[in-house]
Each structure stands twice: as C-alpha cells, then as structure tokens.
Design brief:
Layout: H1 38-43, E1 47-50, E2 62-65, E3 71-74, H2 79-90, E4 94-98, H3 104-113, E5 117-119, H4 125-134, H5 155-158, E6 161-164, H6 171-176, E7 179-182, H7 188-191, E8 196-197, H8 206-218, H9 221-224
Parallel strand pairs: 1-4, 1-6, 4-5, 6-7, 7-8
Antiparallel strand pairs: 2-3
Length: about 230
C-alpha cells in the first residue's frame, strides 16, 4: 500500500517548493507547517477540498448550441474519482467542492456522489473555505507543539484541510491548507506551491490517487479494498 502512486515533489529531492527558500507558502504565517512531516499532515486531514474544472474534470468545456440564447455545457468526470470521494466520506472525511464556474452538470455530479458542500461561482475561494470551517465542529484543535497558528483565527482549522487545485485561483487555498496538491497540467506557479503533483491528470483519476493516499494514511485499508458499483 505504501507504493500508492502519488508522484510529486516530495519524491524528488530537488523539486518543489522545499528547494526554494522563498516559495510563496513559506511567506505566510503558517510557514511552520514545513516543520511537520508530510506523513503526519496526511493523518491530520478532516476536510478535503477540491476544485472542479481541471481537477475533477480535464478542464475542457464542451459547449453545444441549444437553439436558444444559451449553449448547453457538458463535462466529463471519472468513475475512479467518484469512488474515491465516496470512500473518504465513509472514512469520516468531509468533502467540499469549490468552483469558479457555475454549472448544472457539476450540481448533478455532486448529487450523485452525496457531496453536499458544493460552492459554485466563487470568484474568491478563500472566504468560502473560511465559512465552511466556521461551521465545522471539531476542526479547531491545534497540532501539538505548534505555536504558529496566530494571528489567523482559523489557522488551526486550516491544519486539518487538504486542498487540490490546478490554477492560480486556487493558490490562496493551497497556501493556507495543511496539504496542497495539484495535477500535471497545472502552471509552474501552482506546482511550486504544491506538496505533491499527481501522476494521473485532472479528470483521469488524479482525485482517486489523493483519496487512496488519504485512506492509507488514516489506516482505512478496508475501504481501499472495498468494491462498489460504478460511481
């Protein structure tokens, strides 16, 4: 199970933000996070936040003429990702999708997977996540030995959050969360802020990689091996 394929900078000694002393995340008040081993941060996760376009999908938008003033939009999701999201939810992990676009297709997919924390049309994603955390009990206990949570009121809560995004709009979240993950097609500026880059692309199993890694860290191997109908 330890060989679950999460490509990324932590597997390449000279890659990623840890090789760049002035990387963006280290400039924020939660810079002390890098003193906590990544394996320990995985075990602290209680909320997984996913962007939609480019993470749960491959980022492409397919528009078809509807004969009316507006076009019909379609997106493609992967069943592997759907299964992973269902399994981490069964493990007690809260799941949220925060998207800059507004799409009824995304609403339908979230409903299929039982994702109730769906926020669309979010131009600024950070306040959305702050509002989610404010309404979540049990996410405010600080990590033992940490003295760097102030001055942000939600700092300790952010230490329980995993964020997965693929573009610049996701950077404010990635810089604040305990674990930041991106996908291979992400811009260089996003990859520099990420703890890990998945091997699979967005919409092609990247979310499943992350979910499996999280279940492994939580010791929920029973859910890793549990089959289910297509998601």
């Amino acid at each position: 199970m330890s060989a679950i394929p999460l490509a990324g900078r932590n597997a390449i000694p000279l890659a990623g933000r840890n090789a760049i002393p002035l990387a963006g995340r280290n400039a924020i008040p939660l810079a002390g996070r890098n003193a906590i081993p990544l394996a320990l941060r995985w075990r602290s996760i209680r909320l997984a936040v996913f962007d939609v376009d480019g993470v749960l999908t491959d980022g492409r938008l397919m528009l078809a003429a509807s004969g009316k003033s507006s076009a019909i939009e379609s997106k493609t999701f992967h069943v592997l990702d759907g299964h992973g999201i269902k399994q981490i939810a069964r493990a007690g992990i809260e799941v949220a999708w925060i998207s800059g676009r507004d799409s009824p297709v995304v609403t339908a997919r979230a409903r299929e997977l039982g994702v109730t924390r769906l926020f669309q049309g979010a131009g600024d994603k950070l306040p959305v996540l702050e509002a989610i955390l404010a309404g979540m009990p049990g996410t405010s206990a600080p990590v033992a030995g940490r003295a760097d949570a102030a001055p942000h009121a939600n700092a300790a809560r952010f230490e329980s959050v995993l964020c997965m995004g693929d573009d610049l709009a996701d950077l404010p979240l990635m810089r604040r969360c305990a674990i930041a993950i991106t996908v291979p097609h992400a811009p260089a500026a996003v990859k520099l802020e990420a703890d890990t880059v998945t091997r699979a692309g967005g919409g092609a199993g990247a979310v499943r990689e992350v979910c499996d890694r999280l279940l492994h860290a939580l010791g929920r191997h029973d859910l890793l091996d549990q089959a289910e109908r297509a998601c």
